[in-house]
Give the backbone structure.
Amino acid sequence: MADNALKQNLLDLSLADLKAFFEEHGEKAFRAVQIVKWVYQRGVIDFDQMTDLSKNLREWLKLNAICRLPAIAVDQASADGTHKWLLQLDDGNCIETVFIPENGRGTLCISSQVGCILNCSFCSTARQGFNRNLTVAEVIGQLWIAAHALGQYADGADRKVTNVVMMGMGEPLLNYNNVLDAMKLMLEDNAFGLSKRRITLSTAGVIPGMDKLSHDLGVSLAVSLHACNDTLRNELVPLNKKYPIEALMQACQRYVDNGLHRKITFEYVMLAGVNDRDSDARDLVKLLKDIPSKVNLIPFNPFPNSNYETSSPQRIKQFVQILHDSGVITLTRKTRGDDIDAACGQLAGKVKDKTMRSIKMLKAAGA
Ligand code: SAH
C-alpha cells in the first residue's frame, strides 16, 4: 500500500487540473468528469464505489490518489437552526464552517485561511494571528462536509446548501488561487452547479484581487467597508492604509462595470459610538451615491476583551432610516448562532499562530 501522504488528493484539483492529471497518466480526460460527479454530486469518495470506472482504473486510483477531507472535530447545532463545524486539518490546525438556514435557502459560510493576517480591530479571528492558506481540498471540503452532514447526498434529497459566502475565517483574496479553484468546483455543473449569483466573496478590499476576480470568475462581491473616512477605516481595517477608500471605490465601480453584477454589497459593522452616528450614515450615502450597491449592516458581535460595544437597536433603526430615506437598499443582518459562537467575527478555530500576534499583544499590554 502506497503512503497516503504521497498520493494526489483529488479534492485539490479543479476539473481542468483533474483532466490534466488523468491525461498525464495515459487515461482519458472524461474520467475527470466521472470522478467529479461521484465526489461532489453523490458524495462518494471511496473509489470502490465508483462503479462506472473499470476495475483496473479503480486499483490504479487506490495506489496513486486519495479523496481526503478535513476531519470533523466538533459538530454543534444552534437553537435557531444554525450549524457549526469545527474542522481539524492534517497539521492539527482547526477552522470553522457555519450553515445558516433561512427562508427556504441554506447559506454556508466558508473559511479561506487558518487565522487571518489583516488584524481588523473588531474581529476575533484577528486575535489569533495567521498560520497559512487553506488548500483547495480544505476549502471545497467544507462544502462537501456540510452537504454530507446535512443529508444532501441522501437519495432524492433536496439541495440543502443553496448559497455559499466566502465570509468565514481569513481573507479569501489573499488565498486567491486556491479559493478560485474551489469556487470553480462550486460553479461546475458536474460538481455543485451553483450559479454565480449564489456565491458571494467578501473582502476587506484587496484591490488587485478584486480586479482579477472580476476577470477570472465574477461571482458576487461583498466589501467590508465599516467606515467612510480613511482615518477611521485605517484604525478598523488596517488594510486601508494600503488600499484607501477612494481607490477601493474605483475598484468597486470597475467590478460593476464588467457587467456581471448589478450591485456590490457593502458590509458595515455597527460599533457603538465609533461609526454609528447620523453623520456617519449620511457620509455612507454620499460615498455610495454613484455605485450600484446595497448595504448590509452587521450588529457588532462581541467577544472577550473586544473593547467595542454593539450599537443599540434604536441607533441601528435610525441609521437604517437615513439610508432608506436616501434610497440606499439596506438590510440589517440578523445575528445567528450566537449561542454557539458562530456569528460573524466570532469564529475561533484553533490556530497555531505563526505571527505570534497574541504574544506581541500581551507584551504591548505590559504583561
Ligand atoms: N476577510 C473578509 C471575510 C471575513 S469576515 C472580509 O473582511 O470581508 C466576514 C464579515 O464579518 C466582514 O464584513 C467582517 O468585517 C465582519 N466581522 C468581523 N468581525 C465581526 C464582529 N465581531 N462582529 C460583526 N461582524 C464582524
